[in-house]
């Protein structure tokens, strides 16, 4: 076998390995979290998904606290479309683009029902949702 044939074979093996490894980022890494948004007259829930390790660490840290001591809320871009894990709403947080934060600007604060009622405004103008009264409630299985 000539050097060029061996180099070609090595390149094929390397390329195949690379393609296989790119496909291994599976849904197994994705986590789903239910958030609750409490107000004086009604409570809402919604679900967000992520595979971002930093966000997962923040969420897991919050879940270790008693519910009354959880102070961080979700903040991130939303998009149109009902997804199976967030079936009560015609919108959802963009996967891996949301975060858990302590402070957000007021313009993106609101109730999930406000987003539902005026989805075009929230998606096209505000561009994100950061309900200050939301708290992570639990990790859920899908």
Automatic annotation (TrEMBL):
Signal sequence coordinates: 1-26
Organism: Rhodohalobacter mucosus
Superkingdom of the organism of origin: Bacteria
InterPro entries the UniProt entry points to: BP74_N
Segments forming domain BP74 N-terminal: 31-141
High-level lineage: Bacteria, Pseudomonadati, Balneolota, Balneolia, Balneolales
Protein name: BP74 N-terminal domain-containing protein
Pfam families to which the protein is assigned, alphabetical: BP74_N
UniProt KW keywords: Signal
